[in-house]
Write a structure and sequence with these properties.
Radius of gyration: 15 Å
Distance between the termini: 30 Å
Helix content: 25-40%
Strand content: 5-15%
CATH class: Alpha Beta
């Protein structure tokens, strides 16, 4: 479909709650599968990272992280971002990263959790990890 329809750049996201069902464990299998399909079709990807992602309920914390105190919750997110960038950054089809989706949009979704300090840490971490472009999408 990508090559056939003239699409070149796609935005891909993997939900933190699905990728990290158990604390300390990551499962990249589904996103790896999607990346391979896009790569085989000749596409490139802007990979969306973070808790606030498209698809209801918008905030995708793993069940085990929802009740953590803010410092531990922030660390869990940063660990996920670090692991994901380390896993995919060398892939040529990744052209950059989007951090969070509509990160400061209020009034939509369940479990709204806007934390600007955490957002700044997330941005700085990605800046430290990669030279690929990265952005926040604010609304």
């Amino acid at each position: 479909m990508v090559a056939q329809d003239g699409l070149a750049t796609l935005s891909a996201h993997e939900l933190l709650g699905r990728m990290r069902k158990e604390q300390g464990m990551y499962d990249f299998k589904e996103l790896d599968r999607q990346m391979k399909l896009i790569e085989n079709a000749g596409g490139i990807v802007t990979l969306c990272l973070g808790v606030k992602q498209p698809r209801w309920p918008e905030y995708h914390w793993p069940t085990w992280a929802i009740t953590l105190p803010d410092p531990e919750k922030t660390q869990a997110l940063l660990d996920y971002v670090r692991a994901t960038v380390a896993w995919y950054d060398e892939a040529e089809l990744i052209d950059g990263y989007q951090l969070e989706n509509e990160a400061v949009l209020r009034g939509f979704g369940e479990g709204i959790d806007i934390n600007l300090r955490r957002l700044r840490k997330e941005y700085q971490l990605v800046a430290d990890l990669t030279e690929k472009p990265h952005l926040h999408e604010y609304q």
